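Subject line: Sequence and fold of a protein, written as structure tokens
Body of memo: The sequence and its backbone structure tokens, given next.
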Amino acid sequence: MIKKCILGLCLSVGLLPLAHAGLNITNNTDKPSTAVINNGPCSTMLGEHGTTQPHTTNSVPDGIIKLACLIHTSDCKANLYMSDNCSGSVIATIVFDTKKGIRNIDNKNIDGYTVSGSGFDATINKGQ
């Protein structure tokens, strides 16, 4: 019985990444972006997936999202910064559900930056 439960758990965890491909962050600005997830460390600790470079799309794998949102799977909160080290002002707070995607975006009206998105796609823009 225990072996069946462990096997079932392993199979279900192994299939989780098949549900969706993670989070796509498109940065249409001239500055890199980073985030602090659930008051943890800066996203730069994730290596290449932790910083969205200017004029690129960063595809953050599902496994990294699940790890960052481990105890907040339905209300994962990301404070977004327009810097390469989570410094400066928070330009937006994004609330994310690891199964359903973006639930809410609270733009802070800092320096003309706006974040929009739905599902598993977010876009950062800067107005004139």
Q: What stands out?
A: Residues 96 and 102 are 4 Å apart (CA to CA). The chain has one domain: 21-126. Helices lie at 2-15, 62-68. Strands lie at 23-27, 34-37, 56-60, 76-81, 90-97, 101-107, 113-118, 121-126.
